[in-house]
Write a structure and sequence with these properties.
elongated; 9 helices; about 220 residues; alpha/beta; two-stranded antiparallel sheet
């Protein structure tokens, strides 16, 4: 079961600044959370995210996990232990759990409250999660890359068209099943597909509205 957490206004803290920690932190960039990355060193991508104010960086070395977690005020809502030290990760998780934090560690799924799937992000509207249940993160990333290549610019425009048409349909048709049927028929219309293929969203919207007005919502 994949769940997209609502983290708007909450604090996500990632301990570790390497490539793996940076990959994990990207899953939270558009969540609306305040993100902290804490490490003695940071990957180039992490430094770039810090420079663009997408995350907050704190350069420090954690010598004792419990002392560090105890010192945090307020405590993070979500803590990710992503260092290259398995024992430190384990200790961080144990200490954070005392305070009711939701936790994740890169090297022990049994200690984690959730699994971070590989996320395929295409445009502003499509997110597809790929999870192998923690069995093969590498394969999840391979599958993510394959899926990203399958989504076309035409698909992205079709999403925008559907958003616009749905608003119109809600004002005209009260039956949700009928609305759904019309939306699928619009998606399957040859002329509308051609307009989207030609990157002409305005024409596609005009054609869709004409179909609705004339009642010609068949292929």
């Amino acid at each position: 079961m994949l769940i997209d957490l609502k983290l708007n206004g909450q604090t996500v803290m990632v301990i570790g600044g390497g490539k793996e920690a940076t990959r994990k932190i990207t899953s939270f960039l558009d969540s609306g959370a305040t993100i902290w990355m804490i490490s003695r060193d940071f990957s180039p991508q992490a430094l770039s995210l810090g420079q663009t104010k997408q995350i907050n960086l704190l350069k420090t070395e954690i010598k004792d996990a419990k002392t560090f977690i105890d010192s945090l005020n307020p405590k993070p809502d979500v803590l990710l232990a992503a260092t290259d030290n398995s024992q430190l990760n384990h200790n961080l998780i144990e200490a954070a759990l005392i305070y009711g934090c939701m936790v994740y560690t890169v090297d022990n799924s049994a200690l984690s409250d959730f699994i971070l799937p590989a996320i395929a992000k295409i445009g502003n509207n499509i997110k597809i999660a790929i999870s192998t249940g923690g069995k093969s993160p590498a394969m999840a990333h391979v599958l993510r890359e394959r899926i990203e290549k399958l989504i076309t610019p035409q698909d992205l425009l079709a999403i925008e068209l559907q958003e616009k048409i749905r608003l119109t349909l809600k004002n005209r048709i009260t039956d949700p099943k009928h609305r759904s049927k019309l939306l699928y028929e619009i998606l399957d219309n040859v002329n509308i597909k051609r307009a989207l293929l030609e990157d002409n969203l305005d024409l596609a919207q005009e054609l869709a509205l004409n179909l609705l007005e004339k009642g010609e919502t068949t292929k």
